[in-house]
Amino acid sequence: MKDQFLLTPDITFLNHGSFGACPKVVFENYRYWQLEFEKEPVYFIQKRLNDLLRHSRQMLGDFVGCEANDLFFTPNPSTAINTVMRSMKLEPGDEILSTNLEYGAMDRMWNFYCRKNGTRYVQQPIELPLTSKEHFLEQFWKGYSERTKVVFISHITSSTALILPVQEIVEKARSLGLITIVDGAHVPGHIDLNITALDCDYYTGAVHKWLLSPKGCSFLYARKEVQDGLDPLIVSWGYDSDFPGESRFIDYHEYNGTRDFSPYLTVPELFEFREANNWVEQTAASKALIREWYPKFCELLNTQPICPVTEEFLGQMCSIPVNTPDEFKLKDTLYDRFGIQIPVTKHGDKNWIRLSLQPYNTIDDIQTFYQALQQLKEEGELLIT
Question: How do residues 16-29 score in pLDDT, each as one tens digit?
Fold first, then answer.
């Protein structure tokens, strides 16, 4: 499978989770749309683009379980959540309930908002390892108070690679009258998703990660009942349009200035690639490898898995606790000495090596990583207690 991707062949690439990796045929389709745009940009935008975007939205909506006009494309999940944040109308003293496991960029965004508005971002501590779904939910709702107005939660966490029980969180939040925002950056193409059944207010997901599009393709979903309250992040021709389309929601958020629309137009091609390569079956094998090797890596480093090693908590990623005095040095060492591209990060007071597997990864890739850690352990580069 690696021959079908553009990845450098002499690098052991175990970091799909950060920015994804695009198949050659999908990237060629991306370049095709860029060229089509440049050949006649005026005609392309005025006569072709609307139908092409609608088709991509329809295919994506069918896949993630929502109507095509209930989502719009964004360059990344950060842009999507910033759109929601800028429309929040909270009062001083109101609280946004989240966890201490969220993506750092989103923590910064909510801290920015709270400093401007006098609201409070509650990062409820979650004790690791998790022992059960109920264990997580019990810890999470300890952060709730009568001032809580919003729940913001990752569907799959970034640094710790945990699948969280968002369905149960959204159901309870709905019963409490709370606004629900789900950061599903890692979800589309990774685990099953039905946004309508989830029934959250807002959901963002990346297409350029596990769904394999070129970089710069994500989406924001908004439940119909909240769409009118969502202001466009960029006010442009779609606002009070002279030529309104079938959805004001789409007009407001999709037509916001000249940019490269090409990544969004590759959606049909990426679904064709997935179908042609039995991607669901192949990724199931990748998930099985994660569950097989996660305990082995933890045993090697004398640490413990941070959750039950099951499909309930793990997909195609796992985060291995590692005792290292310098996470940046370890990451650079793995790359410079062993040719392994893998993230080593600090989250809270813990360090993690996050292993991502895709069908282009082989047993040899996993063993190369294992042997590298084994060698560093023998050399005393890792703190094994």
Answer: 999 999 999 999 99
| Chain-centroid distance, C-alpha 338 | 28
What's the farthest any 2 CA atoms get from each other in the chain?
Answer: 69
d(CA 73, CA 233): 13
Task: Please give the model's pTM, rounded to 2 decimal places.
Answer: 0.97
Q: Which of 272, 295, 321 is the last residue of a domain?
A: 272
Return the exposure string of 196-208: e unless at least 16 CB atoms fall within 10 Å of the residue's CB, then b: eebebbbbbbbbb
| Strands 179-183 and 148-154, bridge-based pairing | parallel
Cα separation, 252 vs 65, in Å, equals: 22
If asked whether residues 91 and 208 sit together in one domain, one would say yes
Structural contact between residues 330 and 301, judged by C-beta atoms closer than 8 angstroms: no
- The Cα 165–Cα 312 span in angstroms is 9
The answer on 87 and 7 residing in a single domain is no
Phi, psi values for residue 130, rounded to 5°: -75, 145
Flag whether 383 is in a domain. Answer: no
